[in-house]
Design a protein that fits this description.
The chain is elongated, with a radius of gyration of 28 Å. Helix 1 runs parallel beside helix 3 and helix 1 packs antiparallel against helix 5. The strands form two sheets. A four-stranded antiparallel sheet has the order 3-4-5-6. With 195 residues, it is of the alpha+beta class.
Length: 195
Amino acid sequence: MDSSSEAPVPFNAAAFDDVNELYSLLVYWVTVWAGTLRQPVPGVAGRAWRSDTGRIIGLPRSTSPVDGQRLVSGLAGWLGDRLDAILSADRPDDVDAMSDAVRDVWRMNARWPRIERPSFSAMPCPRQDCGARIAVYPPTFEGDDRRVVCTAGHWYPEEEYEHLIRVFEQVAREEAKTARVAKRLAKRYGIGATT
């Protein structure tokens, strides 16, 4: 199959906006601190995509994801290498403003995890006297199985977990049905708990 007949990867506008915002923040703060520390602005910051008024919009046009990571890492490294000098400069308002901007970086970082997060099963760990939450990790590569581990460390093969969850759901349905019948009988005959 040639590449022209393959479906394109869907464009993720939110990821595009976040990476450009991150790059813009880094270019801005590298430029501010380069001026304060009387150091040359890295060439990476000079090639930023800018509006007609000079406002930084984001990464240079036609930047690949690999190049984007390299550019962002380079700017973050530049700031990290000079962090002691930045914090000891007599610019507390700029340090506070940069600190506020870094909160946006943490927000973006949380929105795009690099490691798949598990989902948690409604079923507690069925091992005797355990009852811990069960984490279900997605496959890490095509053809891989999910990993099922309780927070206390009990591991379950996927097939066993599927069986256990079916039994758990069946028991839960039967308990709910029994509770509904008991509630109806209690209401009808005025005996027992009515909750």
